[in-house]
Design brief:
The protein is α/β, with parallel strands linked by helices. The chain folds into 2 domains: 114-169; 172-519, Glycoside hydrolase/deacetylase (TIM Barrel, Alpha-Beta Barrel). Helices cover 46% and strands 14% of the residues. Strands 2, 5, 9, 13, 14, 15, 16, 17 and 18 form a 9-stranded mixed β-sheet that branches. A hairpin with a 4-residue loop joins strand 17 (475-478) and strand 18 (483-489).
Length: 533
């Protein structure tokens, strides 16, 4: 090997070594780079986990306050915003949203300093105040240990006092009384091919669908309506002889712009005649102990949920407590001949008296060999007690759904005794009668003891009497010895009349804020909607 070849070999070796060193350096750089990325990823994961845990802790601390905030309403009756920081009534700009979010965070921070029990008490007070029961809300907070040192409580009481002072007296003679029947969940009750011509036409007149009811409820709420009890409209006293006396309540107070309304529901018995018409079959307790409806759908499946007015209104008031004055819900008018709430509690189901057991009852009993009269009475009583705790009231609708105007006083007395024996034993004593068929026991003239029917009902303990008068949004007589209320029917017939220009129907709907009826009217019913002959 020449010297030149040897040198060339050394140069190649050095070049290879240089290349290998460069490759090694590049490899080390890549390893360092990917190691750095991995380390950064680990750090990021640790940071995310830490922040997530912190957020979860923050959420737990603020859950109670957010629950309260979701119930609060602004002064104009719109719902307060939640954690999005948006108030749909007044916060449309970015600046408004930011301001609302900051305010909400401040409230959450205040509540985070309270114990779980204190937050629960605060939530109860907020709900009471939202229902305009300011005195109870104030009393609840002020009764807590350490009240003076809990700024959230003292500031809330100050707010309640200001809100109470801003309320105005309701003119009780401007309060409308409206009512519904049971609601349809599907089209079977409107379909002549399923229910027959007469029943489909009848349902089309006197029933609303669930969707119609929900829309009407929302429109009334948006209009500023607030549910009150019929007895809230009067002050009732009892003299030394035990006689009751009534006068107008001038101390029924609501925020300015709110409109008091009385609500009732007729025939909540779930008659056998309602079978296979898309109407709920009974009231039941769900797995959480809440009153819901059992409903058998078109496929024959038995479902439990919000399938009629009771659970739907309960849910609406839970979401909008400012729709209810002092937790008022509605009056349930009950007959008795098929039982109550879907439970077969009339005595005929026990005695099987052939002179009184009708065909529908006999068919039902044959299809339910497991039936127990005593169990149904017990179950119905539990439902009634739960409803009373939730703010519902009860009234007689006569046992046999009688025409009080054309039925003799003797027959009305027999009917009422049946009601007392088979319905009052379940729901408790009542002093309200809602006459079936919209009838009454007199014309526009006052009741007096010369009226034999009035004398009988008065002596039987009834003080509140309700008919149906759709000719005007409000009709009422408040007299020393009784209260008489004309109700407005909200049903397919009245909706159709308003939609087609009937002046009194239009006036009724406008008074309640019900509008754009064509947009929610259920055209599954037969039209034109006319009263079946």
């Amino acid at each position: 090997m020449t010297e030149e070849e040897r040198r060339e070999l050394i140069r190649k070796k050095r070049r290879r070594e240089a290349i290998l060193r460069k490759r090694k350096i590049r490899r080390m750089k890549r390893i360092a780079f990917f190691s750095g990325c991995a380390l950064l990823a680990v750090l990021i994961i640790i940071l995310v986990v830490t922040l997530t845990k912190k957020d979860e802790s923050s959420v737990k601390q603020t859950e109670a306050s957010e629950s309260v905030l979701s119930e609060l309403s602004s002064e104009d009756g719109t719902e307060a915003s939640t954690d999005t920081g948006k108030d749909t009534a007044s916060m449309s700009s970015d600046e408004g949203e930011v301001e609302n979010t900051v305010s909400q965070d401040e409230v959450a921070a205040d509540l985070s300093g309270l114990t779980a029990d204190q937050q629960s008490v605060y939530a109860q007070a907020q709900r009471l105040a939202a229902m305009y029961d300011y005195d109870s809300a104030i009393s609840l907070l002020q009764s807590q240990d350490g009240y003076d040192g809990i700024s959230v409580y003292t500031e809330a009481v100050s707010d309640y006092e200001a809100e109470k002072a801003a309320c105005v007296a309701v003119d009780v003679e401007t309060v409308s009384h409206i009512f519904f029947h049971s609601l349809l969940n599907d089209d079977r009750g409107f379909d002549p091919e399923v229910s027959g011509d007469f029943v489909a036409q009848d349902n089309g007149c006197w029933m609303c669908s669930v969707d119609e009811f929900n829309t009407i409820l929302q429109q009334m709420y948006d209009h500023g309506c607030v549910l009150v009890r019929l007895r809230d409209l009067v002050v009732q006293t009892t003299d030394e002889d035990g006689d009751v006396h009534f006068e107008k309540n001038t101390s029924l107070m609501l925020p300015e712009g709110k409109q008091a309304v009385v609500l009732s529901e007729d025939d909540l018995s779930y008659y056998h005649a309602y079978d296979n018409q898309g109407i709920a079959s009974k009231l039941v307790f769900d797995e959480n102990g809440e009153v819901k409806c059992e409903y058998i759908n078109e496929a024959g499946e038995t479902l439990v949920g919000d399938y009629d007015m009771v659970p739907l209104l309960n849910a609406f008031i839970d979401e909008h407590p400012d729709f209810s004055y002092h937790n008022a819900h509605a009056i349930i008018a009950l007959t008795g001949y098929n039982g109550v709430f879907g439970y077969r509690t009339d005595s005929v189901y026990k005695t099987l008296d052939p002179d009184h057991l009708d065909e529908n009852q006999a068919v039902w009993l044959e299809a339910h060999p497991e039936y127990s009269f005593e169990q149904d009475v017990a179950d119905a009583t539990e439902i009634a007690n739960a409803l009373k705790e939730e703010g519902w009231e009860f009234a007689s609708h006569t046992w046999g759904h009688r025409h009080a105007d054309t039925t003799s006083v003797e027959d009305l007395a027999v009917d009422n005794e049946k009601w007392v024996n088979t319905v009052e034993n379940i729901v408790g004593p009542v002093d309200t009668i809602i006459f079936a068929h919209g009838s009454d026991i007199a014309g526009d003239e006052d009741y007096d003891m010369d009226n034999a029917k009035y004398a009988y009902f008065k002596e039987s303990g009834y003080n509140f009497f309700c008919n149906v008068d759709g000719t005007t949004p409000v009709w009422m007589q408040i007299r020393d010895d009784y209260v008489r209320s004309g109700r407005v029917n909200i049903d397919g017939y009245r909706l159709y009349q308003a939609m087609t220009g009937n002046e009194s129907a239009v006036a009724d709907m406008e008074y309640l804020g019900i509008h754009d009826i064509e947009s929610f009217f259920d055209y599954a019913r037969v039209t034109p909607v006319v009263i079946p002959e």
